[in-house]
């Protein structure tokens, strides 16, 4: 995740010859599928359906999964619909509108840092009615990474210290905040927090992180598909 040019759609074999409009349509279709899959995940973790219905659903879902045929991307491949580094990531488990796992969090620039907005559902539950601590750490890790990128210092997490001050409610709009507080050599120091939109002053989780920009050789080795 170093400062290297994004692999543009024009240089990706899957998008060669496609227009910006085609890409928009494809992303919209991916987001629509992601939306329905998240609804399925939510219905699945809430259902009290009888065993017989669960067996029927299992067969139905297996049948639908079998219809997603065609070429599958390999492990390190960057999806043709993505802009990496520093742009859209359709299948990110945090921000990806195409991901069944993501809340998904929307990120905007804000007073010296970045703000993430999302709502956790029952699929993200830890203690009954509240968010899983790992989900809070994931939201913060991601947004703190965005704060680095927004400051022109893209990096990877090498350390993340999280303090859980009060439980994070489910089904309540959340406000995640992150900002770069300083640098030392290749280390980037970042603060983050989670509160509800309703009461931003009541901070539920805080985090201190250290991020590091890999050197160019390490970046090439880690991300062989980034030019
Ligand atoms: C845009 C949105 C993106 C969202 C992404 C969210 C962020 C993520 O989840 S990233 C995924 C999780 N993180 C990882 O997998 C990283 C794993 N770590 C690594 O691969 C390597 O440590 C890597 C590539 C980051 C750095 O390796 P390398 O370039 O060899 O650096 P290295 O020489 O070890 O250390 C560089 C500096 O960082 C410091 N450092 C290393 N580890 C730590 C640490 N744990 N704590 C503090 N400082 C550290 C070193 O002291 C060194 O400092 P200096 O240059 O001043 O001597």
Automatic annotation (TrEMBL):
One GO CC term, this protein: membrane
Keyword Hydrolase found: yes
Membrane topology designation: Peripheral membrane protein
InterPro entries: HotDog_dom_sf, THEM4/THEM5_acyl-CoA_thioest, Thioestr_dom
Species for this entry: Streptomyces olivochromogenes
Protein name as it appears in the record: Acyl-coenzyme A thioesterase THEM4
Catalysed reactions, semicolon-separated: (9Z)-octadecenoyl-CoA + H2O = (9Z)-octadecenoate + CoA + H(+); dodecanoyl-CoA + H2O = dodecanoate + CoA + H(+); tetradecanoyl-CoA + H2O = tetradecanoate + CoA + H(+); decanoyl-CoA + H2O = decanoate + CoA + H(+)
SUPFAM superfamilies: Thioesterase/thiol ester dehydrase-isomerase
Region (Disordered) location: 1-21
Family: Belongs to the THEM4/THEM5 thioesterase family.
Start-end of Polar residues biased regions: 8-18
Subcellular location: Cell projection, Ruffle membrane; Cytoplasm; Membrane
Broadest EC class assigned to this enzyme: hydrolase
GO biological process: fatty acid metabolic process
Domain called Thioesterase: residue spans: 129-200
GO MF annotation terms: hydrolase activity
EC number: 3.1.2.2
UniProt xrefs under Pfam families: 4HBT (PF03061)
Key words, A-Z: Apoptosis, Cell membrane, Cell projection, Cytoplasm, Fatty acid metabolism, Hydrolase, Lipid metabolism, Membrane, Transit peptide
């Amino acid at each position: 995740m170093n400062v290297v040019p994004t692999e543009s759609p024009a240089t990706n074999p899957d998008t060669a010859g496609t227009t910006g409009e085609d890409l928009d349509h494809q992303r919209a279709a991916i987001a629509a599928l992601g939306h329905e899959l998240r609804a399925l995940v939510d219905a699945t973790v809430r259902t009290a359906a009888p065993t017989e219905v669960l067996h029927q659903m299992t067969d139905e879902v297996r049948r639908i999964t079998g219809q997603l045929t065609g070429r599958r991307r390999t492990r390190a491949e960057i999806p043709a619909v993505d802009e990496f580094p520093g742009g859209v990531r359709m299948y990110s488990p945090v921000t990806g509108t195409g991901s069944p796992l993501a809340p998904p969090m929307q990120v905007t620039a804000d007073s010296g840092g970045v703000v993430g907005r999302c709502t956790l559902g029952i699929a993200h539950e830890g203690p009954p009615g509240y968010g899983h601590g790992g989900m809070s750490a994931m939201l913060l890790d991601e947004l703190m990474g965005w704060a680095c990128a927004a400051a022109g210092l893209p990096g990877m997490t090498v350390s993340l210290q999280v303090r859980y001050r009060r439980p994070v409610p489910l089904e309540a709009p959340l406000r995640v905040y992150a900002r770069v507080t300083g640098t030392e050599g290749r280390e980037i120091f970042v603060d983050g927090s989670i509160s509800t939109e309703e009461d931003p002053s009541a901070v539920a989780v805080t985090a201190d992180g250290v991020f590091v920009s890999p050197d160019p050789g390490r970046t090439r080795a880690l991300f062989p598909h980034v030019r």
